[in-house]
Design brief:
It is built from ten helices and seven strands. By secondary structure, it is α+β, with helices and mostly antiparallel strands. Helix 2 crosses helix 6, helix 7 crosses helix 9 and helix 9 packs across helix 10. It is globular. The termini are far apart.
Length: 257
């Protein structure tokens, strides 16, 4: 990112296995030029065989940055940023930062998988968001990514919680932030409780314990025990309701052991 031309007005990242459709730059720059306060421009994305990033209402091409930051933090299903390939960036916003992406890591060997999302929230605090209601980029999905360290450790759980903690105070009211934080903490401990029941392993527990410490939140053993019992009750009820599926699940777990 530091190597972009000092004369450039916009910057477009393209990951190695992704591509841009022929009209991508034309349409994105058109929106950015129409709204000088826009710092990021997105569009619909063809991710594998599915169209994504379709959460904004048609035909609006402009959303105030703080409004979009608030909406995306409140609505966990509003998938709008995609990947770096999905976005056009205003170059001065890159040059004004020592490092555009936060590549620091709290756990050895595991990168910050939410670095690109964090960069978007940083920009939206001072710039607005533009959007093109067309499929302009393609993101390739890889089967091997399902067995990567990020998938194995479920790093997204820490990433989602971290985004709320880092940027909630900037975009949400105090009441909205408290409510959203409690929801994400509840999800996080439910996940931890489920991982205890399913015996996911020490590496996963160590990663998420370190993740909580990184966010300034000590692990609450009382909350973990409560969440584990709640998940155990929920899974027991499901097994009673669907005994055949439960049997297949149990056999699968025994085979893994």
């Amino acid at each position: 990112m530091r190597q972009i031309s000092p004369a450039s007005k916009y910057c477009k990242v393209v990951h190695a296995d992704d591509w841009l459709f022929p009209n991508c730059l034309t349409e994105m720059v058109k929106v950015a030029e129409a709204h000088p306060s826009v710092g990021i421009v997105g569009s619909y994305v063809l991710e594998g065989t599915r169209v994504k990033c379709d959460g904004l209402l048609y035909p609006s091409t402009f959303v105030p940055g703080r409004e979009l930051g608030r909406l995306s933090l409140l609505d966990g299903d509003l998938y709008i940023f995609g990947s770096p390939t999905s976005l056009l960036l205003r170059s001065d916003l890159i040059r004004n930062r020592e490092a555009f992406y936060n590549d620091s890591s709290f756990y050895p060997g595991v990168s910050n998988v939410y670095a690109d999302i964090e960069a978007c929230y940083e920009v939206l605090q001072e710039a607005d968001f533009g959007f093109v209601h067309q499929v302009l980029t393609f993101t390739r999905t890889h089967e091997e990514s399902q067995t990567s360290i990020h998938s194995r450790l479920r790093t997204g759980m820490h990433g989602k919680l971290g985004v709320v903690i880092k940027y909630g105070p900037a975009f949400l009211s105090s009441k909205e932030y408290e409510k959203r934080l409690e929801k994400k903490l509840g999800d996080f401990y439910s996940f931890l409780g489920s991982s205890v029941i399913e015996r996911k392993g020490k590496e996963l527990r160590d990663y998420h314990k370190a993740g909580l410490q990184d966010l300034g939140l000590p692990l609450s053993r009382a909350r973990l025990i409560k969440a584990t019992l709640k998940e155990l009750y929920r899974k027991t009820c499901l097994r009673l309701m669907y005994p055949k599926a439960a049997l297949r699940s149990i056999v699968g777990l025994e085979n893994k052991d």
